[in-house]
Amino acid sequence: MSERRIGIIMHGVTGRMGMNQHLVRSILEIRKQGGVALKDGTRVMPDPLLVGRNAAKVEELAKKHGVERWTTDLDQALAREKDEVFFDAASTQLRPRLLKRAIAAGKHVYCEKPLATSLAESMDLYQAAKKARVKHGVVQDKLWLPGLLKLQKLRDAGFFGRLLSVRGEFGYWVFEGDREPAQRPSWNYRKQDGGGIILDMLCHWRYVLDNLFGEVKALSCLGATHIPYRWDENGKRYRATADDAAYATFKLAGGVIAHFNSSWAVRVRRDDLLTLQVDGTHGSAVAGLRRCLIQPYERTPKPVWNPDIPQPINFFEGWHEVPDAGYDNAFKVQWELFLKHVAGEGAFRWNLLEGARGVQLAELGWRSWQRKKWLDVPRLKA
Fold first, then answer.
1. Is residue 273 part of a domain?
2. Do 173 and 180 contact (CB within 8 A), yes or no?
3. In terms of DSSP bridges, do strands 3-11 and 85-88 run parallel, antiparallel, or are they unpaired?
4. Closest C-alpha to 12, from 110, 84, 103, 131
5. Is the CB of residue 85 less than 8 Å from the CB of residue 45?
6. Average pLDDT, the chain
7. Do 62 and 135 fall within a single domain?
8. The predicted structure's pLDDT at residue 91
9. Under a CB-based contact definition with an 8 Å cutoff, are residues 342 and 110 in contact?
10. Is 155 a domain residue?
11. pLDDT computed for residue 351 by the predictor
12. How far is CA 223 from the centre of its chain?
């Protein structure tokens, strides 16, 4: 059995998401399992090179996880011919410039979302990668979450009948930073630094809706900055200039209506930080990140409106849980698919154009809020 090494320049992995999901739970786990198997028996083995501006942080991260290679010199890393892939999980505003440098150096590129802060920048990146004939991808991790995979199986099996609607609830209380440290970086709440929940989350909802329920055709979005002041990592008070909540309604192909509430200023009383309720003529399902519960037509209760008596029906009964089927980490699964693609096996449709579609929806969401109107979503051409 032969092994093929793929060197990966990993930028931005000293941050929470880059470190936990991409380095530790994806690349290092793939190495522990002996790489990714191709159809011909070859094992693709990722070889990470950690890159960051803070030498002490990068060195500490590398030592902690047994990664041999690290550097603060991105130019030198990009000049290494044996490292084929550039990955970025740093801030959104920096991403277009970094990806452009990597593409110019002939690297295949893979990155976190949002791809950029504007559709124009996103399409420019896609065209640059296409022209350079490098392989490219954007993280769309929620497609491989157990809860959403179960929804996909239900849809494919015809459980829902004709799809009617999708209702998504996402978010949690992000502390302001004064009495309790914030769980998210302060730049998330400064529009001038690329922050805002519309840009962050509508990119997710685009690929979830397009892939599971129907292509997004139009939207209406209302944003809000519910918490006007927050405190940064140094304890300094600052004005929040970015939206911390978004209330969006989408019209999908086939007549499906979807509504998503996204908020960093909400207290959770539901099964998970993200829940999706999908209703169809034959049945309904409620999914979180991992669990999924279903109620078919035959088990649907028949309530009668009467506010003068205690509710006689327990609406939490009559639901059946969809069993697990040995699901892997969502980020790791997509990494494995991308590594196979780089190695020449299989297509990879979650590319920079798909990332641009997410940014397009976020841009239209912001515009809808400002104009107070419904907007159509034009189809982007490859």
1. yes
2. no
3. parallel
4. 110
5. no
6. 97
7. yes
8. 86
9. no
10. yes
11. 98
12. 20
Cα(263)–Cα(243) distance, integer angstroms: 9
255/329 Cα distance (integer angstroms): 33
> What CATH number did the domain enclosing 259 receive?
3.30.360.10
Identify the residue whose tokens are 């979650």. Answer: 350
In a domain, 353, yes or no: no
Instruction: Give the span between the Cα atoms of 138 and 81, in whole angstroms.
Output: 22
What amino acid occupies position 330? Answer: A
Containing structural domain, residue 111: 3-141+330-348
Judgement on whether residues 176 and 305 belong to the same structural domain of the protein: yes
Whichever domain contains 116, its CATH number is 3.40.50.720
CA distances (Å), origin 36, targets 24, 31, 68, 315, 339: 16, 8, 20, 45, 8
In terms of Cα–Cα distance, which of 285, 278, 312 is closest to 299? 285
Residues 290 and 231 in one domain: yes
Residue 100 buriedness (CB in 10 A; 0-12 / 13-18 / 19+): middle
Give one DSSP letter per residue of 232-271, joined into a string: -TTS-EEE--S-SEEEEEEEEGGG-EEEEEEESB----SS
Residues 76-117: pLDDT tens digits? 999 999 999 999 999 899 999 999 999 999 999 999 999 999
The 10 Å Cβ neighbour count of residue 143 is 18
3-state secondary structure 316-353: CCCCEECCCCCCCCHHHHHHHHHHHHHCCCCCCCCCHH
Taking the C-alpha atoms of residue 140 and residue 165, their distance in angstroms, rounded to an integer, is: 22
Residue 231 lies in a domain: yes
Residue 132: both structure tokens together: 């350079």
The whole-angstrom separation of Cα 45 and Cα 62 is 18
307 lies in the same domain as 180: yes
DSSP at 51: E
Distance CA 382, CA 354 (A): 10
pLDDT at 381: 87
Structure tokens at 266: 């909400």
pLDDT averages per 10-residue partition of the chain, 382 residues: 94 93 98 97 97 95 97 97 96 94 98 96 98 98 98 98 98 98 95 95 98 98 98 97 98 98 98 97 98 97 96 95 95 98 96 98 98 97 85
What spatial distance separates the first Cα and last Cα of the chain, rounded to whole Å? Answer: 38
